[in-house]
């Protein structure tokens, strides 16, 4: 599939999420799963903060219950040209316009029998509240998923509201994940089971979560995120949980960048740059400059 039909677009606009068949060959889906499983088994990226346990204190002392890899394309270059990327990019341009940018990719694993539930949250709660965001995430199932092995679930229409209050699972600010702590009714949420090779897209403000994985198989998903350049928000808002976040992942990343990793990171990020206009180019240049400045100020 290269585009959504009009009815699908209308449903996405109304609900804030949409499952659809990507049309990817089964062999392509299986290859993606093998590639990402290989990265997880080798624990690539742990020292630089790319690999982390989203639901633990992430110090390596306990089995990871929800391991994730940020920017797995940095460790498996073949992901950059995969057919899923081209499908997602075409639909992202359809939904967000020609100035869409590739923002990030993430590998998500829920290990067999111990995979932890994903707390209900909005992706925008992780962002800087001084800006408004227009982004869409493509969550690709690399095996069939339902409520027995942690399929996604959503609150329809939640993207039309504001970012709700968030905190930390168990009140522990060392945990990477955020948890929405009020403002919605669980009875209104809907599960979204899909076959392997199907994708669920959602906006950055759509409230979503997923159950645990007590099944005998690892649940794998691959996520691509596309957005437009963020714009300064017109109404002041605060996300106090951001200032309280103190994760081991962030500490590992900072130490790695101080020891030369920042240059490696900036070189890797060249694959996501797409100079469509001056505004996009300037945003990426300023983002790189902030990364350098933050490293110097915290040294």
Please name the defining characteristics of this protein.
299 residues; alpha+beta; Jelly Rolls; 7-stranded antiparallel β-sheet; 4-stranded antiparallel β-sheet; globular
The rough form would be described as: globular
CATH C-level name: Mainly Beta
Q: Structural class of the secondary structure composition?
A: alpha+beta
Major sheet: order of its strands? 1-12-7-14-4-3-2
Do you know the CATH topology?
A: Jelly Rolls
Strand residue percentage: 15-25%
- Low-confidence regions: 295-299
Report the major sheet.
7 strands, antiparallel
CATH homologous superfamily grouping: q2cbj1_9rhob like domain
Supply the number of structural domains.
Answer: 1
Radius of gyration: 18 Å
Structure, described:
The chain has 299 residues and is an alpha+beta fold. The protein has a single domain, classed as q2cbj1_9rhob like domain (Jelly Rolls). It is built from six helices and 15 strands. α5 packs across α6. The chain is globular and about 50 Å long.
Provide a brief overview of the structure:
By secondary structure, the chain is an alpha+beta fold. The protein has helices at residues 6-15, 26-42, 83-96, 240-244, 248-268, 278-297, and strands at residues 17-21, 51-53, 67-70, 101-110, 118-121, 131-132, 135-141, 152-154, 166-167, 179-180, 190-192, 198-203, 208-210, 219-227, 231-232.
């Amino acid at each position: 599939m290269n585009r959504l039909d009009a009815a699908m677009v209308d449903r996405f606009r109304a609900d804030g999420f949409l499952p659809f068949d990507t049309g990817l060959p089964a062999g392509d889906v299986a290859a993606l799963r093998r590639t990402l499983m290989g990265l997880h088994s080798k624990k690539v990226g742990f020292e630089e903060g790319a690999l982390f346990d989203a639901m633990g204190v992430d110090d390596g002392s306990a089995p990871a219950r929800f391991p994730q890899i940020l920017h797995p394309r940095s460790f498996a270059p073949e992901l950059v040209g995969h057919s899923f990327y081209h499908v997602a990019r075409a639909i992202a341009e359809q939904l967000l316009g020609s100035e869409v940018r590739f923002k990030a990719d993430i590998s998500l694993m829920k290990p067999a029998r111990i995979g932890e539930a994903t707390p209900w949250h909005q992706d925008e709660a992780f962002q800087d509240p001084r800006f408004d965001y227009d982004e869409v995430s493509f969550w690709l199932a690399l095996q069939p998923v339902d409520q027995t092995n942690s399929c996604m679930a959503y609150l329809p229409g939640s993207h039309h509201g504001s970012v709700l209050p968030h905190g930390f699972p168990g009140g522990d600010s060392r945990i990477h994940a955020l948890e929405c702590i009020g403002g919605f009714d669980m009875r209104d949420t809907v599960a979204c089971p899909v076959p392997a090779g199907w994708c669920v897209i959602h906006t950055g403000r759509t409230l979503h979560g997923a159950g645990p994985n007590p099944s005998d198989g690892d649940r794998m998903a691959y996520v691509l995120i596309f957005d437009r350049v963020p714009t300064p928000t017109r109404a002041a808002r605060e996300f106090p949980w951001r200032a309280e976040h103190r994760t081991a992942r962030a500490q590992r990343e900072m130490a790695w960048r101080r020891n030369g990793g920042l240059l490696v990171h900036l070189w890797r990020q060249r694959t996501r740059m797409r100079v469509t206009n001056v505004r996009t180019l300037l945003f990426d240049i300023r983002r790189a400059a902030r990364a350098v400045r933050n490293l110097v100020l915290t040294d």
